[in-house]
Amino acid sequence: MIRKNIFWICFVSASIFCCNPAPPARAGESRRLTADAVRYIESFVEKQMDENMIPGVGVGLVEGNEIVLAKGYGVKSVVTHEPVDSDTLFHIGSVNKSFTSMLAACLVDRGVIDWNSTIHEMYPGWQLEDETLKSVTVFELLSMTSGILADDEDNFWDDFGDKAVPMDVISFFTGFRLSKSPGEKFSYSNLAVSLGGYLFVYVAAGVNKPLNEGYSDLLRQYLLAPMGMNNSTVFISEAQASGNMAVPHEKIKKQAVVPGSKKRIKKRVLVADSEDRDDD
Questions:
Q1: What residues form DSSP beta bridges with 75?
Q2: pLDDT mean over 76-97
Q3: What is the pTM of this model?
Q4: Per mean pLDDT, which range of 10-24, 54-68, 183-197, 253-267 is the poorest?
Q5: Distance (Å) of CA 145 to CA 63, 106, 231
Q6: pLDDT for residue 44
Q7: Most buried residue among 134, 140, 234, 263 by CB atoms closer than 10 A?
């Protein structure tokens, strides 16, 4: 997949506890967690970990603008058994698409782009073979209605292989032709969202800015720094250097395996992908 991977503290929404909802708080009233509530949450989390074979998870609960619970459960690796804590970094995979969309919203708020800005308007010097592709908008790229289809990703990998870098996305679309008209069909596309994120770099930072660095800088400026996510990063090298990163696991014959390790443990298995690298 083409995705700009963020490693961050995994916050679990309070909405997962809606099986036993509390009445809404009145204005000015705090819903502080009681000891019983914390015990219930921890019991729920541990039950889900056991039932879904998850080695480790970081849980955060936010009330208003305040974090009222931040805690790690389980281990970062079934080999080392190092415990997860509230600052452990996790790979969030395609959840990063919501970060790209939120970045777009920030740029729209500041007048840098518009939801109806076209590819041509964002990168006017780009000589595309398909005139229709030039008219695809920010909204269509991020809502999976651009006419770029899921199957098109197979052609991308055929062309560039698993060592693809961001500029390969630009190269791919230079000669690309849409098989569906913009707005005609929904199709989940990693390529479309990746293209959107890279075009935001061109608009906000200029065409000479390296795409990986530019995307990372924009996320930090508009999202991560304002939210206090100072340890979050798009680069696996930085996540590994932190010394507090949960490693990916894969399932082989109902056993948990850390890629590159011969050790296997039968309980708490998370199927994950270890393909991530700085240049995706």
A1: 83
A2: 93
A3: 0.79
A4: 10-24
A5: 35, 21, 33
A6: 95
A7: 234
Nearest to 272 by CA among 91, 85, 122: 91
Sequence-separated (6 or more) residues with CB below 8 Å from residue 165: 212, 279, 280
Place of tokens 């707005």: 183
- Which of the four pLDDT bands, split at 50, 70 and 90, describes residue 10? very low
3-state secondary structure the chain: CCCCCCEECCCCCHHHHCCCCCCCCCCCCCCCCCHHHHHHHHHHHHHHHHHHCCCEEEEEEEECCEEEEEEEEEECCCCCCCECCCCCEEECHHHHHHHHHHHHHHHHHCCCCCCCCEHHHHCCCCCCCCHHHHCCEHHHHHCCCCCCCCCHHHHHHHHHHHHCCHHHHHHHHHCCCCCCCCCCCCCCCHHHHHHHHHHHHHHHHCCCCCHHHHHHHHHHHHHHCCCCCCCCECCHHHHHHCCCECCCCEEECCEEECCCCCCEECCCCCCCCCCCCCCC
Contact 57, 227 (CB under 8 A): no
Residue whose entry in the numeric block shows the structure tokens 């400026």: 221
> What's residue 26's pLDDT?
46
Cα–chain-centroid distance for residue 191?
A: 14
Q: Write out the two tokens for 250.
A: 């894969």
Contact residues for 38 (Cβ-Cβ < 8 A; gap 6+): 69
Q: Is the dihedral of CA 161, 246, 68, 40 positive or negative?
A: positive
CB 239 within 8 A of CB 233: yes
Across 62-71, 97-106, 120-129, 199-208, least confident range: 62-71
Among left, alpha and beta (phi > 0; psi -120 to 50; other), residue 125 is alpha
Q: How confident is the model at residue 260 (pLDDT cuts 50, 70, 90)?
A: low
